[in-house]
């Protein structure tokens, strides 16, 4: 038996490639089943966030057939990109260590973020619900979540840590210097949208507009922070009032196009408009940045701000890695009485995996 992780993240692949492989939370179980069958895996867990797409697997025998494991994750597209240059593969103890780092926020764009722990838990539960996990991945993922909790309580890695949503707000603040006289619109009232609203309230934004497909959810979030809910179908009209628009929906396609933003700019008399797209797949067409006085940023553009924020937490990384090493050794001892040859596989270092254009 061999345990491994294969995937790509913000460290290895640009957002335009990651979004083609992104899997909605509601489809993790279904896509995980396809991956398990395609790769001839004994166990499998699929993790998909705005910053990574990873497959954790256990297989009785690694062979060339595993090369096409990612083919079921692509969205419908006219292109067939080669993902092999962006792919990483970790095996045995390194795969376990990587999962523990991911779950603890040590491998995140925002060092020490807390949202990733919940996303890993959601991915594990989705796989478990359709019986994709067994003795090995159940033990490994449960220990990963326990390790994340331990690191959160025993170190200061999360102190002052910011989420992707809060970094988006910080970007808006850098653009306009002062938010107290600005109107901000949030499209998408999920966890990242909520994080944006929460931090905007702290920054004293003049007005917050919340638009969501579920109007009740938009009302609930807007009311909590003294904002105004907007029906999803009316968001373009209301956008004329906004100076900053943060887009974070779960839509697997573009929802804001160039021609629509041109109309918005005409309605606001060409006053500057900042668009921050933190969704993956992206929600805003890239060509809107060609419009005069429109400034578009995506999740990869947030990395500059993140680098500055991370410096004061780096000293905690050594403590976190020590905990991870201990927990990795402990869990491997439990799942493999004799590690040699059992959970230290000889997966080819260059798999040369290719991505087909098959729809998820």
Number of continuous helical runs = 12
- Mind telling me the CATH class of the largest domain? Alpha Beta
Average of the residue pLDDT scores = 83
Number of domains: 2
> Ends: how far apart?
28 Å
Which short descriptors sum up this protein?
Beta Polymerase, domain 2, alpha/beta, disordered C terminus, Rossmann fold, 12 helices, single chain, 360 residues, six-stranded parallel sheet, 10 strands
Tell me what the structure shows.
There is one protein chain. The protein folds into two domains: 2-159 and 313-335, Beta Polymerase, domain 2, CATH 3.30.460; 164-306, 3-Layer(aba) Sandwich (Rossmann fold). It contains twelve helices and ten strands. It has helices spanning 15-21, 28-38, 92-103, 115-129, 135-154, 164-176, 191-203, 215-224, 235-238, 258-267, 303-310, 317-335; strands spanning 2-9, 43-49, 52-59, 88-91, 183-187, 207-212, 228-231, 244-247, 273-277, 294-298. Strands 7-6-5-8-9-10 form a six-stranded parallel sheet, with helices on one face. The protein is globular, with a radius of gyration of 21 Å.
């Amino acid at each position: 038996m061999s345990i491994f992780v294969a995937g790509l993240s913000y460290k290895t692949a640009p957002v335009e490639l990651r979004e083609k492989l992104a899997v909605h939370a509601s489809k993790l179980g279904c896509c995980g089943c396809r991956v398990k069958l395609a790769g001839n895996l004994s166990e499998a867990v699929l993790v998909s966030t705005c910053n990574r797409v990873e497959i954790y697997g256990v297989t009785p025998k690694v062979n060339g057939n595993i090369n096409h494991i990612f083919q079921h994750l692509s969205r419908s597209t006219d292109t067939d990109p080669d993902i092999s240059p962006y792919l990483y593969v970790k095996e045995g103890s390194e795969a376990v260590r990587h999962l523990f780092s991911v779950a603890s926020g040590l491998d995140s764009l925002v060092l020490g973020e807390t949202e990733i722990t919940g996303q890993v838990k959601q991915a594990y539960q989705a796989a478990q619900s359709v019986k994709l996990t067994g003795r090995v991945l159940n033990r490994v993922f449960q220990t990963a979540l326990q390790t994340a909790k331990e690191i959160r309580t025993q170190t200061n890695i999360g102190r002052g840590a910011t989420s992707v949503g809060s970094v988006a707000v910080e970007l808006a603040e850098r653009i306009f210097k002062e938010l107290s006289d600005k109107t901000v619109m949030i499209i998408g009232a999920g966890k990242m949208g909520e994080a944006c609203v929460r931090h905007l309230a702290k920054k004293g934004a003049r007005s917050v507009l919340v638009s969501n497909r579920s109007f009740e959810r938009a009302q609930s979030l807007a009311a909590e922070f003294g904002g105004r809910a907007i029906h999803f179908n009316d968001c373009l009209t209301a956008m004329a009032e906004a100076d900053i628009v943060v887009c974070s929906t779960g839509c697997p396609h573009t929802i804001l196009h160039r021609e629509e933003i041109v109309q918005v700019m005409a309605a606001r008399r060409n006053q500057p408009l900042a668009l921050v797209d933190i969704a993956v797949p992206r929600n805003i067409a890239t060509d809107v940045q060609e419009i005069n006085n429109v400034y578009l940023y995506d999740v990869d553009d947030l990395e500059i701000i993140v680098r500055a924020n991370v410096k004061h937490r780096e000293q905690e990384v050594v403590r976190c890695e020590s905990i991870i090493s201990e927990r990795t050794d402990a869990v491997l001892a439990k799942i493999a009485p004799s590690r040699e040859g059992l959970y230290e596989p000889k997966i080819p270092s260059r798999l040369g995996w290719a991505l087909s254009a098959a729809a998820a």
